[in-house]
Amino acid sequence: MGTTWSTIGGVLGVSLGVTVLVVVMFSLGVAAWARGGAGAPPHGDRRGRTDRVATAAAVACFAACLAVAGYGIDLIIPG
């Protein structure tokens, strides 16, 4: 019985890639959320189209992070 180093390297590469992807998606979500006014209109003004698009992009980024985390938990916890 030996160690399959290529498999260990593959797992390391995928884990590192997914980690970087989640961090980038979360960072983009935070930046978009701030650009969109954090979900609240400023001083009673109506929100512009760019604010709505930025907020929608932030929600999509956060949903992607949540989906990746949920999938990882599903892989860890059987059943």
Short descriptors:
79 residues, mainly alpha, elongated
* Anisotropy-based shape: elongated
Broad structural category: mainly alpha
Helical percent range? over 70%
**Main beta sheet:** none
Count the beta strands: 0
**N→C terminal distance:** 30 Å
The sequence of SSEs as H and E is HH
Give start-end ranges of low-pLDDT stretches: none
Number of helices: 2
Strand content: under 5%
Any idea what the radius of gyration is? 18 Å
* pLDDT averaged over residues: 88
Model description:
- This protein has 79 residues and is mainly α.
- 75% of the residues lie in helices and 0% in strands.
- It is built from two helices and no strands.
- It has helices spanning 5-35, 49-76.
- The mean pLDDT is 88.
How do the strands and helices of this protein lay out in sequence?
Blueprint: H1 5-35, H2 49-76
Helix pairs in contact: 1-2
Give a summary of the structure in a few sentences.
With about 80 residues, the protein is mostly helical. The protein is built from two helices and no strands.
